[in-house]
Structure formats: C-alpha cells, structure tokens
Amino acid sequence: MPFALAVADALPTLGDAAVREQALRAFEAAGLPSTRDEVWRYAPLERLDLDRVRPATTAGDVPSSRLADAIAAGACAVVHTVDGFVVDRGTAPSGVRVSVAPPGATPLEGSPEERYAADAFALVNAALAPGALEIRVDRDVALEAPLVIVHHVSSGLAVAPRTHIVLERGASATVVELLVGGAGSVVVPVGEYRLEANSSLRLVAYQRLAMDAWHVARTTAVIDRDARMSHSVLGLGAGYDRSRNDAELIASGARNELRTTYLGRADQVHDLRTRQFHRAARTTSVLLSKGAVDDASRSIYTGLIEIEHGARKTDARQTNHNLLLSPHAHADSVPNLDIRENDVVCAHASTVGPLDELQLWYLESRGVSREDAQRLMIQGFFAEMLDDLPSGVATSMEEDVAALLGGVEVSA
Amino acid sequence: MSTGLVIDGLCVRVGEKDVLRGIDLRVGAGEVHVIMGPNGSGKSTLAHALAGHPGYQVTAGRVLLDGVDLLSLDPTERARHGLFLALQQPLDVPGVRPRDMLVAAGASPEGLEARIDDEARRVGLRPDLLERFVNVGLSGGERKRAEIVQFGVLRPAFAVLDEIDSGLDVDALGAVARRLAAATSEWGCGLLAITHFRRLLSDLRPDAIHVVSGGRVVATGGPELAETLEREGYEPFRAL
Lengths: 412, 240
Prior knowledge:
- The complex is a heterodimer of chains A (412) and B (240).
- Chain A is α/β, with parallel strands linked by helices and 412 residues long.
- Chain A folds into 2 domains: 353 residues, no CATH class; 57 residues, no CATH class.
- Chain A is 21% helix and 41% strand.
- Chain A has 8 helices and 22 strands.
- In chain A, the strands form 2 sheets. In chain A, strands 1, 4, 5, 7, 8, 10, 11, 13, 15, 17, 19 and 21 form a 12-stranded mixed beta sheet that branches. A 10-stranded mixed beta sheet of chain A has the order 3-2-6-9-12-14-16-18-20-22, covered by helices on one side.
- In chain A, strand 2 and strand 3 form a beta hairpin.
- In chain A, helix 1 runs antiparallel to helix 2.
- Chain B has one domain: Rossmann fold (3-Layer(aba) Sandwich), CATH 3.40.50.300.
- Helices cover 35% and strands 26% of the residues of chain B.
- Chain B contains 9 helices and 10 strands.
- In chain B, strand 7, helix 6 and strand 8 form a beta-alpha-beta unit.
- The longest helix of chain B has 17 residues.
- Chain B is globular.
- Classes of the chains: A alpha/beta (412), B alpha/beta (240).
- Chains A and B meet through helix 6 and helix 7 of A and helix 2 and helix 3 of B.
C-alpha cells in the first residue's frame, strides 16, 4: 500500500486524527527528498521504499535487550517505549515527571509546522508519533544517576519515537536514550529539549538499530541563560543513519557541547547534520565529530555555525576527524559558517585520513598487535565520547562497541 | 636462554640522513649499560630503530636479543620477544586506557589493577592518573613515570630507556632508578639507558658506559668514563 494511504488508514487508531492529518498533508506537500537536494545527495534514497513498511499502530510487549539491561543497571529510572508507544514509564525519582504529551504538543516556542516545514521525515513523526515521552525535571533538582530511555523497535514498521525533555531553572540531569531493534524498519525520531536558565543536561543518544534499518533523526535544543547542554550522539546501527542536531543559544552564558561519533561498516551511510544557532551574546558552542568508516561505508558531516548580529563574544568551534579504515570507505566533511557579527571567535577544522601511525607504533612497541592497536584506538573514539558518563553506562556501551569492532555481530 | 643484546654494525637512516654509521654494542644478560653522547649523536635514533619506529630505516647491521634477529620482527613481535622502549617523549593515545593497552600487550588481566597500583607507587605516581587514557593530561615527568609503570607490569627481558631522567625531579629520578635497578635482580632484566646526566648512574650502577658520537660508539669504559665526560665534555671524543 502507498505509504501516505497507510498512514491515513492508521490515524483513526492512533487518535487525535485532525492534528495528525495536518502533518500528513504537510508531508505529502513536502514530498520525499531526492538526491538532487544538496542536503540529501549522499543518502541512498533509491533504496528507501516506504511502501514496504507499515505504520506502527499498537505497542507490543517490551522485548528483551541485553544491552538495554546493562545500560539500565545503574539508572535512577528506566522508561521503555515500543514502536514509539510509551509502555513503561518506570518509577521517576522525586522532582522528575514522566508523562505522555499529545500530538502537536511541543516544549519549544514557535510552531512545529514552521520548524519542520520541509522536513518530510519529521513530518512523518508528527503524523505518526503515538505521543511524546515528556521528561520534566523540576526547578533546582539535581539527578545523580542517569535516567535511561529505551526505544525498542519491531521489524518492518515505520516508527516515530518522540522525546521532550524540559529542565526547569537550575535543574541538572543525565539522560541516556537507546534505540534498538528495527530490522527493515524506518525509524524517524524527533527530540525537543528545553533548558531553562542555569540548568544542565547531559544527553547521550546511542543508536544501535539493525543494519538494514533506516534512521532519520532530528533534535532541537533551546538553551537559555547560563544553561549547559552536553550532547553525545553515537551512531553504530542502521544502513542509513542520519542525525540532525540543532541547538539554539538564546541568552548569554548558554553553552552547547555536541559530540558525535560513528562507526561505518559494510555499506552503511552515516549522515550528520548540525546547526549551532547563536542568537545572544557570550554564548558558546563546541562541536566535536569523530568517526571511522570501514569496508564500503561512508560518512558525511555538515555543520553550520550561525551567529546572529549582536551575538557578540560568541565562541563557536567545530572539529571533525574522520578515520578511513578501508580503501573503499569514504568521508566528506563540510563545515559552514554564517556570521553576522564581527566580535566573535569561530574556528573549524577537519581531517580525513588513516589512524595516526605513531600512536599505532607506540601501542605496538608495548607488544600490542597492529590489529588490536587499531581496534583499541577506534574504540577509544567512543570511550572519549562517553568519558564523563556514569561508569556503568559507559562500560556497557564500550563493551558493545568493542564486540562490534572485534567482528562479533552482537544483537543489541 | 638469555644471552643479552648484541648490536653489530647497525646503520640507520632518518629521511636522507645517515644518523647511525655502524654501531657495535654488547650488553650481557642482566647487565646495565649506559649510553652518553652529545646532542645529535644518534642516541635516540638507536632507541627508536631498535623498537622499529616507522620513521627510522635500518640500512645495514644486525641486532640480536637473546639470539633472535630483532630486525626481522615487526614492532609487536620485538616487544613480545622481550624488548621494551621507554620513550623520551611518550605519546598520548586518547580513548585508550592503560589497562586495556597492557592486556592487549600480553599482561595477565588477573590482579592487573593491583600490579599497576603497586608499580605506580614505586615510582611515586598517583595511580588514578593511570585510570583514564594513556598519557592524556599527564605532565612530562608523569609520562616518564608512567612508562616505568608499564615496564614494571610487562617485565620485559630487556629495556631501552631514552633519557628517562629528563623532566624528573631528584626524588622522582631516584625512585625510577631504584625501580629499574631492582628489575635487574627481580627478573634479570637487562638495561640500556641513554642519558645526559651522571645522576642516574649512582642508582643504576652500570656495568659499562658507552660514548656515542657521530653515529658510532667511540669509547667504552666504567664509571670513570662518566667522570671524564663531566670534566672535559664530549669534545675530546669528537676527534676519535
């Protein structure tokens, strides 16, 4: 069945049909992108057949996931979604509210229609997301242990997880989002995060979908005065893994640290898009993207730093390092600057190349084999991204990466 | 069977330059030898070439460690055969934890943390500095001590120490030298220490001192040779 018809059929079951229909019409008007669009030119869109996937309309049971269990071990609360449906809200610690917001709701200012106007996949999310998982941390509450969200995805479906996180003034929290499963599925997550003044959010998105899944994610963080967002995006799964992460720094002292890393295997494509929008003076963004491409995989990094007129003393840095592990792998890096203010510091750097020969030799000279040295160094990319996480979470993820790098095809 | 290190007519080229021009050296099993020499004489080149650094090209000669031709082995195999190099400027390897590196290098994972902690204490290094990533965020002196911790955990048959004393204060240097000297009796480790300073000698009590100049060994002797160098500098040896 044509995808749009299948979505239309699903709307009565999902409820709130009017809001969803509007999103569906916007999706039909926007149409799927084509590789003639510059921002989609590396996506294997010819391989995307939306008509083959069925919109998820019900939630199954929570499937077992060893990786999820390991990561959740030290969590203060664990929330499970299945095919976009929140099936287990866990037990939130005091000062934290976990709820499900209706379609069309958003914690951000501005209309979703405008925000996602031409973004077909975000519009699919708006039409299909059963509801938004909303995590709200009350004023001045500091969560010590991480809150873990596990998104389970079944096979052959179109799945639209949606997560809203709101940190009220002075709150601080660590949230880990894990995506698992999804053989043959198309997964289009949307995340919207609001950080009120003086709040601090450490967010880790760990994408471990099946290798034949499509993953097209979009997140937007709005960061207020003296608030700090530290965001790590780790892409390991999915045949096509696209992750667009936007941050808006709306008042002075706002800080965004975005670290993305990926490992390309087989003919995977990792497509990373970032936009750091400095709308106020004395705001900071630090972006580090590091990844490795092996076999015939490819990575694309496109980052935009945008600085509005008047955003003086802005400090914006963008770094992208790509490792080529195979002669058939490919990496593209396209940093962009759009600066409408003079009194700023901006820097971008990118490298594409093999592993550092001297570092490899150093490890070899201790007795480490070349193969192990390479594996350790690539694993190290991920370890660096996880460095300031609670050790249980970091260890589980590092072991997962290590197993994949060791050639062990472990299921998440 | 341990027969020590034998270097015969070793010639090494760095880029277009012939830096080592026929090094001959014999370090008996469990012996401690020291190499001294002016800047640019080829001391570090010798250390790097022994460990198979990719920037150093061996053009002639042979090196035997306990009877095995090191030059026919890749850097990993050399280390596995018992050669350890403590670098003058140890590299940092972000993301790689010392523990994981040591396990991959062949150290037994069992009780490894305790051994790392013990070795760190012996050279006065805070053990928590070895919990993050290899040499990342460590000062020059801390890196030197971290090399000796690796040495102590890996227990190599033979170690080349490239200016292990630079960047260390007197106390740290004493601790490092005592650790090295103890290794010679603990497992019969042989040592070849490259240094500019006599300080290292009092604790290491070398069996022989060699002066390297112009890419060759130009003099060999006992502790009295170091005293001569201290007094007269390297100038008298340049003419040799």
